[in-house]
Amino acid sequence: MKRATILIADDEAEIADLIALHLEKEGYHLIKVSDGKEAVRVIQSHPIDLVILDIMMPGLDGYEVTRQIREQHRMPIIFLSAKTSDLDKITGLVMGADDYMTKPFNPMELVARVNAQLRRSMQLNQPALGNTSVLEAGGLIIDPDKRSVVLYGNSIELTPKEFDILYLLASHPKKVFSAENIFRQVWGEDYYEGGNTVMVHIRTLRKKLGEDANKDKWIKTVWGVGYTFNG
Length: 231
Description:
This protein is of the alpha/beta class. The protein contains eight helices and eleven strands. A hairpin with a 3-residue loop joins strand 10 (219-222) and strand 11 (226-229). Helix 6 packs across helix 7. Keywords: DNA-binding, Phosphoprotein, Transcription, Transcription regulation, Two-component regulatory system. Residues 5-118 form the Response regulatory domain. This is Response regulator transcription factor.
């Protein structure tokens, strides 16, 4: 089986070496870079399965690196940053990151999250076995094989997690999912901040679908319970 390749982008050499030490024990192939521009160059020239990304780096910061990655690639991105505010975490997730850890960090927890993200990514990239289908509701078309969304003839660019949430809800119209249930099914793990993470993704998903605070045509909030697809 092919070894997964992980890119570690952090300008603190000691931290990059510590991460590499623990991930090498898991059998991963590692590439380390110390600035944002080099991270983008590596991703453009090497098949990368997952990125561990600092935010404050020379050249390009982690947010801009993520933006450029998401223009062409869907591999998992884990932010590992000394920026600890809720706004920083929300910004990272909205930009397209799949997870966010703060420094100082537990290396074994990071390994666990890397393993979980790679398992999830491998499942999503496996050929369909006939249990997925294109979903249509009004002017909305969701294609799970192409991972594409078209709304009234216009392509909608979603992050991987936004797509997964939309497909989960649309696959079970009228069923109400709690934030915690969505997190477990989309992220594949339990996490004490999962509810806030889901809320942020729902908010940005609604904006991309052209909804405002007073109009929830596609995703309806069931107050005190969760969310449901309203198509």
